[in-house]
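URGENT: need a sanity check before tomorrow's submission.

F., can you look over the MarR family transcriptional regulator record below? I want to be sure the sequence and structure line up before it goes out.
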Amino acid sequence: MTTAGPETTQQGSLLLDDQLCFALYAASRAVTARYRPLLDELGLTYPQYLVMLVLWEQDAIPVRDLGIALQLESSTLSPLLKRLESNGLIRRERRLDDERSVAIHLTGSGAELRARAGTVPLAIGDAMGLTPEQHATARQLLRLLTANVSER
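Structure tokens as predicted:
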């Protein structure tokens, strides 16, 4: 009969360095920290930047669809939108076809910010130091992981 050492159990290793969740956590923190000075120059936080990315892709999006795209609950999204609106980057409007629904629109300033933000993905890509193939593989694996974990 063999017994597991203090670092293992029948379920697997309990070593921190063996945990995929810790590798994801550390990578997320490192990448987000790398974004911070770039986004400070734009007057955005990282979550605000994500909102703006969606709006630069699709203006006049319902709040519900924005939350789905960003995988954020309304209680998390509302303060982000309020802050972006107070900074003059977006405006919220009741939809004419459904007064219960609010659509988010870019303001002129919000649209203009896109040009200044264009250097951000390049700088982050350089910092990551991945080949285009590695970048695509990492993105694909992370999307698969998200989908698999979300299904359960």
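My own read: The longest strand covers residues 90-94. The chain has a mean pLDDT of 91. If you see anything odd, call me.
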